[in-house]
Amino acid sequence: MAQAKVGDKVSVHYTGKLEDGTVFDSSDGREPLEFEIGTSSVIPGFEHAVVGMAPGESKTATVPAEQAYGRREDEKVVEVEREHLPPDLELRVGQRLKLTDEQQNATYVTVTEMNDALVKLDANHPLAGQDLVFDIELVEIGA
């Protein structure tokens, strides 16, 4: 039976969980996730877990933070004076914002704390620093 390898287009159903069992994403109720192995279109540890699987096979794989969204980096957390933000911008803790620099490069940040004078913004991916657990079922290997 064929096994998934680099260069294969695959379809998988998955459930992604934190180590405490909290589900952060799932293909349940949706079409399977399709991607080509080796193109870095999914996190490296997920891609690596699919290699060697056969259609119809299921497995659970733990992906360390380094092979997922990386370690949390303190330098990606900044405090901004509220006066430097648009006055009509309504903020709440947990809100995701898209910031664009002069070259139109986008950075996504999360509002983690705020008061009348300061807003703390975190540019780390929300899952950075966390080992992730995936239940994976390989549905199909395509051409």
Describe the fold and architecture:
The structure is a single chain. 5% of the residues lie in helices and 41% in strands. By secondary structure, the chain is mainly beta. The strands form two sheets. Strands 1, 2, 3, 4 and 9 form a five-stranded antiparallel sheet that branches. It has a four-stranded antiparallel sheet with strand order 5-8-7-6, with no helix packed on it. The longest helix has 7 residues, at 44-50.
Name some characteristics of this structure.
143 residues; mainly beta; five-stranded antiparallel sheet; four-stranded antiparallel sheet; 5% helix
Please specify the SSE layout and strand pairing.
Blueprint (H helix, E strand, L loop, with lengths): L8 E10 L4 E4 L6 E4 L7 H7 L7 E6 L13 E5 L14 E5 L5 E9 L3 E5 L9 E11 L1
Mean pLDDT: 95
Structural class of the helix and strand makeup?
Answer: mainly beta
Poorly predicted runs are: none
Rg over C-alpha atoms, rounded to the nearest angstrom: 19 Å
How much helical structure, as a percent, in the residues? under 10%
Query: What is the number of beta strands?
Result: 9
Count the DSSP helices.
Answer: 1
The largest sheet is:
5 strands, antiparallel
Order of helices and strands: EEEHEEEEEE
Q: Give the DSSP E fraction (strand runs of 2 or more residues).
A: 35-45%
Brief digest:
The chain has one helix at 44-50, and strands spanning 9-18, 23-26, 33-36, 58-63, 77-81, 96-100, 106-114, 118-122, 132-142. By secondary structure, it is mainly beta.
